[in-house]
Design a protein that fits this description.
Methyltransferase domain-containing protein; 9 strands; single chain; 11 helices; alpha/beta; 7-stranded mixed β-sheet; binds S-adenosylmethionine; Rossmann fold; 39% helix; two-stranded antiparallel sheet; methyltransferase activity
Amino acid sequence: MTVVLDSPHAAGAAFDTLATHYDDLFTFTIIGRAQREIVWNRAASTFLPGDHVLEINCGTGEDAIFLAQRGIRITACDASEQMVRHARARHQLEVPHSPISFQVLPTERIHELPEQHFDGVLSNFSGLNCVEDLHGVSRDLARIVRPGAKLLLCLSTRFCLWEALHYTLKGNFRKAIRRWGGKSLASFERHPFFVYYPTLASLRKSFSPEFRLRSITGIGITTPPSYLEGWISEHTRLLAAMKKVDKLLCDLPFFRSIGDHVLLSMERV
Ligand SMILES: C[S@@+](CC[C@H](N)C(=O)[O-])C[C@H]1O[C@@H](n2cnc3c(N)ncnc32)[C@H](O)[C@@H]1O
């Protein structure tokens, strides 16, 4: 079978190879936890008990389980069969009676979901960086959410100060600037796929006129990216200090756009 590099199956196939280790490599790391804490704080005040929330690029289900435990019904989709297999196993093991439905569905085909009126949409940790046509996603989501529905979208930034400094100091300039061109080729276990790094301005444009941007929050500004887990796990007091600094900086213009991720809060017009 030929896999077209730009197709959603390319990213799904790549993440299939990572699925078994994803939670150990990211979800359960102290950096992964620190970054997710900020998204969860925002999600807890955005989505309410009784809501029906669509999660796209749900991965192994960490956020779906968190939200379901708060009385929120979740429909969760991902392009990777293996990620969804892990998510279903975690659901059965951790919260078997919670209302979560996981399905294999690339975001580019989200229009295939049966007609419904979701109260909100969550996309966490860069799944949308694997989608080329974000305006298409905006149009599709607009059709299946109710007026006033909230979107929480967390993407990798175009410029990450930590990444630029870290790889420059290591002499790896290609990696130091890999986000700057807006598109780069990534690969897991020899499964290549494209990653897109939209700017804040282009994100705002892609989701309008269907959605209005309400807030922008920087994630991982002084807290380092997850590939520095080994180093930071030996400096946990420094990490605690960085988390406090991030809290002060995360809503400020400039600082909110130079972290590892950015969290956008939007509302259906
Ligand atoms: C970095 S993981 C994040 C997973 C999860 N949201 C989390 O917070 O841990 C990115 C996820 O996006 C999924 N993904 C990538 N491209 C996708 C696409 N086009 N449609 C749906 N899911 C996609 C991957 O399979 C992977 O599970």
